[in-house]
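Next up, sample data:
>
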Amino acid sequence: MTEEQVQVGRTEILNHLSKIIEIQQSISQFVEQKLCGTFDDADVEEWENRRKKAFQHYKNIIERYKFTKMLPKDDLGIMAQAAVSYMFKLQHSLGEILVIVDMLGNETFSEIYMDSFTTMSSKVTEQFGVLKKMVEVRTENTESGNEELELIIKLERQIDEDNIVICRQISVKTGGESDFTCYMMRKIVAELEHISDYIKECAEIIADI
């Protein structure tokens, strides 16, 4: 039987999804460290090393999707494809944030980030961790994962609220002027909110797998 004819089952699908989420979680942690100023922004070399690791993780994810050619051609396969689709969207948003950070150059984030920005970024990283745990517990027990799903939904709602607050704070911080930095900051906030939405949608699908 050729590789194309082999079909993966529920457990294998969840294991593959878990590995992808783990990589995306690592990228999110790098982003959080940069945006939240958890290391010295002046240390350009330090960020450059982390940036390289983040982009390497980003590239490595592609190989992880090879399992999709072995998805069963039934309802399970359809749900798995839907989850993968949201993971691609997650990947795109993470990549966009990394590129925007590059475009901002050596901007000192510690001087322009606000509490809501820090909170929003850390909650997104937390969501990735909860999603990974959800996949793991559901791999062991099809009845598990409700607690994790509820937490992801709760965090998504909180991030929506943080988004409203931070957009207002960015306007105050920049005096209402939409300069380049202000525009890029708003783009980052928008992508963080998209990531939160995608994680929630992905979790709801995984809850049915």
The chain has one domain: 3-206. The CA atoms of residues 92 and 195 lie 9 Å apart.
